[in-house]
């Protein structure tokens, strides 16, 4: 019988780079708990991240890891899944990484539906580069590069994904660990592309969307919400007064690997494990 793993089995010795109080700590803790609760083993998990504060997360999870370039986590994660369907593949990045430079990859990953979980750690700012406005910043957000207030409207990434053919869309809050663990477990267990947007405050630069702001402005979808109803999901995503949390939409359809690999022989399956291990050690060397 294999040993029961705990969240500690998914920890690495890499010192954290994040500021004390950063919301990303909550995402990391919830993710480790979700993987342990699901009975996953680090050798069965591949983690791919983009650039940004949140992109550092791939170094803090004991698993195969690839810390890629800005906005490119999803094509890499899709390729990993196609190469080895036995791996649990998780990609993560911030709102800038996923909804700005990576927006094209995001939409196409959604419509392809690989069995990959994508976590968008949304802090409504570019934290790594000292707090500029991001695609989810509120209109009027004042920064060093927008001293008169950010003039653009924020993007609604989940609503964009819904229209692109998403099969699983959810939102959580990094300061609600119990609910976030359950959301992540449901997303990872979903067969298909699952998107979990996690509100993850940047305590250093974003003085608007703070923990206190979220606590005032979020609420959970209740049992009256039908997650199979696309129109109902869209209406909740577009809620104007507050920010709903929970599973908005869930739908089953064949995955990319089901369709793309169905007639291929096992010879077509590439064993990536060795390469991923090599990437992880390179990443460690440059940390
Ligand atoms: Fe977190 Fe913001 Fe610090 Fe980046 S700058 S680590 S997002 S608190």
Strand-residue proportion: 15-25%
Rounded to an integer in angstroms, the radius of gyration calculated over CA atoms is 18 Å
Task: Name the overall outline.
Answer: globular
* Total count of helical runs of at least 4 residues: 10
* Helix-strand makeup class: alpha/beta
Which small compounds were modeled alongside the protein?
Answer: iron/sulfur cluster
Would you tell me the overall average pLDDT? 92
Strands of the widest sheet, in order across it, are 2-1-3-4-6-5-8-7
What is the distance, rounded to the nearest whole angstrom, between the alpha carbons of the first and last residues?
36 Å
User: Could you list the spans in which at least 5 consecutive residues all have pLDDT below 50?
Assistant: 266-272
Number of strands: 8
Largest sheet: 8 strands, mixed
Percentage of residues assigned to helices: 25-40%
Name the helix and strand elements from N-terminus to C-terminus, one letter apiece: HEEHEHHEHEHEHEHEHH
List the helices and strands and how they pair.
Layout: H1 24-37, E1 45-49, E2 64-67, H2 73-83, E3 88-94, H3 95-101, H4 103-112, E4 116-122, H5 157-163, E5 168-173, H6 177-189, E6 194-199, H7 211-217, E7 218-220, H8 230-237, E8 243-250, H9 256-260, H10 273-286
Parallel strand pairs: 1-2, 1-3, 3-4, 4-6, 5-6, 7-8
Antiparallel strand pairs: 5-8
Helix pairs in contact: 1-6, 3-4
This protein binds iron/sulfur cluster.
């Amino acid at each position: 019988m294999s040993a029961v793993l705990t969240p500690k089995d998914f920890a690495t010795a890499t010192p954290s780079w994040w500021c004390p109080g950063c919301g990303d700590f909550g995402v990391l803790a919830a993710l480790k708990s979700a993987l342990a609760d699901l009975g996953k083993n680090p050798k069965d998990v591949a983690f791919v991240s983009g650039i940004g504060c949140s992109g550092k997360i791939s170094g803090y999870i004991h698993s195969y890891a690839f810390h890629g370039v800005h906005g490119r986590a999803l094509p890499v994660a899709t390729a990993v899944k196609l190469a080895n369907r036995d791996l649990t593949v998780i990609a993560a990045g911030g709102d800038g990484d996923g909804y700005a430079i990576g927006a094209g990859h995001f939409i196409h990953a959604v419509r392809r539906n690989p069995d990959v979980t994508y976590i968008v750690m949304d802090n409504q700012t570019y934290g790594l580069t000292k707090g500029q406005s991001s695609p989810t910043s509120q209109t009027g957000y004042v920064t060093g590069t927008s001293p008169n207030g950010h003039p653009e409207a924020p993007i609604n990434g989940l609503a964009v994904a819904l229209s692109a053919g998403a099969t699983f869309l959810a939102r959580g809050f990094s300061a609600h660990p119990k609910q976030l663990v359950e959301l992540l477990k449901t997303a990872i267990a979903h067969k298909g592309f699952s998107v979990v947007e996690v509100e993850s405050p940047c305590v250093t630069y974003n003085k608007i969307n703070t923990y206190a702001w979220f606590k005032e402005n979020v609420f959970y979808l209740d049992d009256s919400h039908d997650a199979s109803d696309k129109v109902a999901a869209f209406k909740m995503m577009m809620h104007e007064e507050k920010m709903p949390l929970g599973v908005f939409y869930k739908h089953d359809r064949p995955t990319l690997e089901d369709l793309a690999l169905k007639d291929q022989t096992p010879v077509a399956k590439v064993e990536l494990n060795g390469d991923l291990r090599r990437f992880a050690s390179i990443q460690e060397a440059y940390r």
